[in-house]
Amino acid sequence: MSTLAEIEAAVPVLTTAELQHLEQTLHRLFRERGDAIVYDDKYGVVTEADLIAAADAAFCEYDGEEASAAGRASSMAGQCKAAYP
Q1: Terminal CA-CA length for the chain
Q2: What pLDDT shows up at residue 65?
Q3: Which of 6, 8, 19, 27 has the most crowded Cβ, counting Cβ within 10 A?
Q4: Separation of alpha carbons 12 and 35, rounded Å
């Protein structure tokens, strides 16, 4: 079993205090690495990947509404719903 799989299996049984400690540890590691961090505060970090995913979801929704308003089916509508439920 991989280390990541072991971690994923252990997380659901952690107490709230343990989850908070884990979250603080992850935030500290993000800060130490400094990889593509855009925003960093006491609540955590936002990375470039987070911003890209948020923008992608917003544009997907916008494109679907535009297509709907124009009376045509959006070719991306199904993909957007699947990717951003």
Answers
A1: 30
A2: 78
A3: 27
A4: 27
Q: Please count the residues of the chain.
A: 85
Beta-carbon contacts of residue 60 (< 8 Å; ≥ 6 apart)? 76, 79, 80, 83, 84
CB 71 within 8 A of CB 81: no
In terms of Cα–Cα distance, which of 29, 7, 30 is closest to 19? Answer: 7
Mean pLDDT (the chain) is: 80
What ranges do the domains of the chain cover? Answer: 1-33, 36-85
Lowest model confidence (mean pLDDT) among 7-16, 21-30, 57-66, 70-79: 70-79
Rounded Cα distance, 84 and 79, in Å: 8
